[in-house]
Specification:
Number of helices: 16
Distance between the termini: 77 Å
Protein name: Molybdate-anion transporter
InterPro entries: MFS_trans_sf, MOT2/MFSD5
Organism: Urochloa decumbens
Strand content: under 5%
Helix content: over 70%
Keywords: Membrane, Transmembrane, Transmembrane helix
């Protein structure tokens, strides 16, 4: 492995360590022992759930290619996952609100474990079933757990500001440290131990089973709207009405779709971008480097949130930086002459792109706790999971369209498109801040008008 990879990883690690060790009193919030116990339990479960997801990440594309499928076949498998999430996500989200978020979290574990088992088969149809199950699981992962947390946090009467602590710590560990360890562990199982690319999926199933046992033994159940007179169609109508009637919710959904759509497209594109001529790159180690970058972003986010900086304000900068980093492959391919040499080590253009991708992953680390914070403020509790999965419909549709046409466009065109979408997210984030400030000022005027007759 080239020294370049070690230098990037070491530099990022040093910055993250300095940020975490250098936290002052302004960067910390005083909490209660009861909250800390609740927070630690959730973070443990969330970390196990994410380890089950992250272990699979570095080897999904590689496993399919080892089974003899080309980029087009692999793209269709990815489409099956995102399409499944789009078609079934809203349904499972509504069921989570009505039937219980804890049950939905357990369902996630079972569904994803079954998806892992399908990876042992080289048959395309079996792998397609696995992708469909994985798509359903993904919808539950990014809606049911957060919905359970917010409802349980409020039910226990904890300070609403403390939610940011749980969000930041969960992303720092679950989307950062756990992802790094998972990437290295997957690399160890598949390459160093020689178990092959299916081994990380077996390990993922084990971690998911452990997490499910903790959920069953320690979590309470909570609901969005458990009334018997509300069927799924009514739940859909409530969610759709909330989005249509509140510009803040609609803007938040559009922002999330634009960013996550670009992010999931990046997941598919980073491997061919860094090795356009089949250069030898350490997939697991690069994946771990990306996750260390995400840790850096979540560490920055925890400081911003602890100091109560306006999320709607700093996220405009984050989206703008993200747009620039994903436009970098377009720039490097124009300025750095592409090499025609097959194989070998990563080229100069690849090195520059890797640094840009690490910056993008840092933005992802800031994005997750920040978007969670905004969702907890703007999305109504009674249909939280349903609305959150409504948000995923356009992003899954976008990713499906991109992957379906993956062979039709040069990789630079797809990166350029993602860059445009991220710039649009920055503009919409600006609009969300304006609408939010206007709503707060109007509400303050109304409250003053109500109190005025009471004053002598």
């Amino acid at each position: 492995m080239e020294m370049f990879y070690y230098l990037v990883f070491g530099a990022l690690g040093a910055v993250v360590a300095a940020l975490e060790l250098g936290k002052s009193g302004k960067d910390r919030v005083a909490t209660s022992p009861a909250f800390n116990s609740f927070k630690n339990n959730y973070i443990l479960v969330y970390s196990l759930m994410m380890s089950g997801d992250w272990l699979q990440g570095p080897y999904v594309y590689f496993l399919y290619s080892q089974y003899g499928f080309d980029k087009g076949d692999i793209g269709r498998l990815f489409i099956a996952g995102f399409g499944s999430s789009m078609l079934f996500g809203t349904i499972v989200g509504s069921l989570a609100d009505k039937q219980g978020r804890k049950r939905a979290c357990v369902t996630y574990c079972i569904t994803y474990i079954l998806s892992c088992f399908t990876k042992h088969s080289p048959q395309y149809k079996i792998l397609m079933i696995g992708r469909v199950l994985g798509g359903i699981a993904t919808s539950l992962l990014f809606s049911a757990f957060e919905s359970w947390l917010v409802a349980e946090h409020n039910k226990k009467g904890f300070d609403p500001q403390w939610l940011s602590i749980t969000f930041s710590k969960a992303i720092f560990l679950g989307n950062g440290l756990v992802a790094i360890v998972a990437g290295l562990f997957a690399n160890f199982l598949a390459d160093n131990m020689g178990f092959g690319p299916v081994a990380p999926f077996d390990a993922a199933a084990c971690f998911l089973a452990i997490g499910m046992a903790i959920i069953l033994s320690s979590w309470g159940e909570n609901y969005g709207d458990s009334s018997d007179n509300r069927d799924l169609m009514t739940q859909f109508k409530v969610a759709a009405k909330a989005i249509a009637s509140d510009e803040k919710i609609a803007l938040l959904g559009a922002i999330q779709s634009l960013f996550e759509g670009s992010m999931y497209t990046f997941v598919f594109l980073w491997t061919p971008a860094l090795s356009p001529n089949d250069e030898e790159i350490p997939h697991g180690f690069i994946f771990a480097t990306f996750m260390l970058s995400s840790m850096l972003g979540s560490s920055i986010a925890s400081r911003l949130l602890a100091r109560k900086l306006k999320v709607e304000g700093y996220m405009q900068i984050v989206f703008a930086v993200s747009a620039f980093t994903l436009f970098l492959p377009v720039v490097t391919n124009s300025l750095v002459p592409p090499s025609s040499e097959k194989g070998g080590s990563i080229k100069l253009g690849g090195c520059l792109q890797l640094l840009g991708f690490c910056t993008f992953e840092s933005c992802v680390g800031i994005f997750w706790p920040s978007i969670m914070k905004m969702r907890s403020q703007y999305i109504p509790e009674e249909a939280r999971s349903t609305i959150m999965n409504f948000f995923r419909i356009p992003l899954n549709l976008f990713v499906c369209v991109v992957l379906y046409n993956v062979n039709a466009f040069p990789i630079t065109v797809m990166f350029g498109m993602c860059s445009i979408f991220l710039f649009m997210a920055a503009i919409l984030q600006r609009r969300l801040m304006v609408v939010s400030d206007l709503h707060k000022s109007t509400k303050a005027v109304e409250m003053n008008a109500e109190d005025e007759p009471l004053n002598p």
